[in-house]
């Protein structure tokens, strides 16, 4: 397989990895009204259920990052998708609210492998000036997944019931494993721009986790990640319920109007990240100038602040498409920025774990806070205002604090 074809295969597999990951996350969101009705769960209880997979997800991120740096991405990614796919299938067979909670906790353990392994593969395989686009393939699946999941699950729930939607979604991960195990092998020196063995390269010295956590740039990017991921999880967990409760749509229509902004954001985020790569010169990349594009995308996403005053379902769909495009682009470029600033490629698993951990601490809060806001006010307006404010904070963080004095 030549280098171009190899990179194409890898980027496609990374896209499908996160697509399947987010299909398995999103299936609960679409099926939520039926699950709540069957088990008598309140909005607050559903908020905790939406959040639950992130409890184990965040606990596993740093250990998984260490595993990726030590053993590489191939086996870690394979084991992770196998675990979370099995957990999703089993969800369709359980008979209590507590059992669903347990399967979501197992889902979180498995899904914690996706980004640390995926970002390492990007660093191994993508040329420096293609890094933003390569990361957009990895992160783009997190928006394609909810789009596919909303349409697929909406149809499955309406025709076969919510249980079969989990079983069918879970089986997709096992299909992904076949080409990954058969054809993917880590890059050797000369196959990518930054071939990444477990030992230090480019003259860098591997840093401890504590040393990395003392870097202002890394902490700023982790905060930015959190501010973006908060809104991402607001949409991921509550958007179908919002469209049904506040906009009066049925489950299939809510699935369609959830899928449209997610699908649009995949295409537009690819364009934004490709444009960023083309505009950035190598010297500017090394100085961390990509942070300006991260901040710009977050400010675009902050249009979600207008959601409480928009009346038309069509207009709110356009607004959500813009916001999701901004979030997707910002998260992809934030990962690329971390790789730009990282002097020692052998630390990429740990640094990715730190960023994803920072993001998902906020992600844990988003569905829970939204549940309390909806139950306390009877409206989603406050939830959108909180999300928009955090996006502004994230833009300020990356622009002002992720300015390196020297390479990380």
Structural class: mainly alpha
- How many angstroms separate the termini? 34 Å
CATH topology: Growth Hormone, Chain: A
- The domain count comes to 1
* Approximate shape: globular
Return the string of H and E elements.
Answer: HHHHHHHHHHHHHHH
According to CATH, the homologous superfamily is: MFS general substrate transporter like domains
Weakly predicted, low-confidence segments:
189-204
Q: Count the E strands.
A: 0
Mean pLDDT: 87
Provide the gyration radius in Å: 20 Å
Number of separate helices: 15
What oligomerization state is this entry in? single chain
The major sheet is characterized as: none
Secondary-structure arrangement, i.e. CATH architecture: Up-down Bundle
The portion of residues forming beta strands comes to under 5%
CATH class: Mainly Alpha
Helix-residue proportion: over 70%
Tell me what the structure shows.
The protein has 408 residues and is mostly helical. It has a single domain (3-183, 198-401), classed as Up-down Bundle (Growth Hormone, Chain: A), CATH 1.20.1250.20. It is built from 15 helices and no strands. The chain has helices spanning 3-39, 43-71, 73-91, 97-111, 114-125, 131-159, 162-183, 209-213, 216-245, 251-279, 282-286, 291-301, 313-341, 348-377, 381-401. Helix 9 (216-245) packs parallel to helix 14. The longest helix has 37 residues, at 3-39. It is globular, with a radius of gyration of 20 Å.
């Amino acid at each position: 397989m030549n280098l171009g074809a190899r990179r194409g295969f890898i980027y496609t597999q990374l896209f499908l990895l996160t697509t399947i990951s987010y299909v398995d996350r999103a299936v609960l969101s679409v099926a939520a009204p039926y699950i709540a009705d069957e088990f008598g769960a309140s909005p607050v209880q559903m908020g905790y259920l939406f959040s639950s997979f992130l409890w184990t997800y965040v606990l596993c991120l740093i250990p998984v990052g260490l595993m990726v740096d030590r053993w590489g991405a191939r086996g870690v990614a394979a084991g992770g998708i196998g675990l979370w796919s099995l957990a999703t299938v089993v969800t369709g067979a359980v008979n209590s609210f507590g059992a669903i909670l347990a399967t979501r906790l197992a889902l979180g353990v498995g899904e914690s492998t996706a980004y640390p392994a995926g970002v390492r593969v990007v660093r191994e395989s993508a040329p420096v000036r293609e890094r933003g686009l390569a990361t957009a393939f990895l992160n783009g699946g997190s928006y394609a997944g909810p789009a596919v999941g909303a349409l697929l699950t909406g149809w499955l729930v309406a025709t076969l019931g919510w249980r079969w939607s989990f079983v069918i979604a879970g089986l997709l991960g096992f299909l992904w494993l076949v080409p990954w195990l058969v054809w993917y092998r880590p890059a050797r020196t000369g196959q990518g721009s930054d071939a990444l063995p477990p030992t230090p390269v480019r003259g860098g010295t591997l840093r401890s986790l504590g040393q990395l956590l003392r870097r202002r740039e890394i902490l700023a990017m982790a905060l930015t990640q959190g501010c973006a991921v908060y809104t991402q999880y607001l949409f991921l967990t509550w958007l179908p319920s919002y469209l049904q409760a506040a906009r009066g749509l049925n489950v299939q229509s809510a699935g369609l109007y959830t899928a449209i902004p997610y699908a649009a954001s995949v295409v537009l985020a690819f364009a934004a990240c490709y444009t960023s790569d083309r505009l950035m010169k190598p010297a500017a990349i090394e100085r961390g100038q990509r942070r300006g594009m991260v901040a710009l995308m977050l400010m675009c996403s902050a249009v979600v602040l207008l959601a409480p005053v928009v009346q038309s379902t069509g207009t709110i769909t356009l607004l959500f498409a813009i916001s999701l495009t901004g979030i997707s682009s910002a998260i992809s470029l934030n990962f690329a920025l971390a790789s730009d600033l990282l002097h020692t490629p052998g630390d990429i698993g740990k640094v990715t774990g730190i960023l994803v951990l920072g993001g998902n601490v906020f992600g844990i809060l988003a569905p829970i806070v939204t549940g309390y806001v909806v139950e306390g006010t009877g409206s989603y307006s406050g939830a959108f205002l909180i999300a928009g404010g955090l996006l502004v904070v994230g833009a300020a963080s990356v622009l002002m604090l992720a300015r390196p004095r020297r390479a990380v």
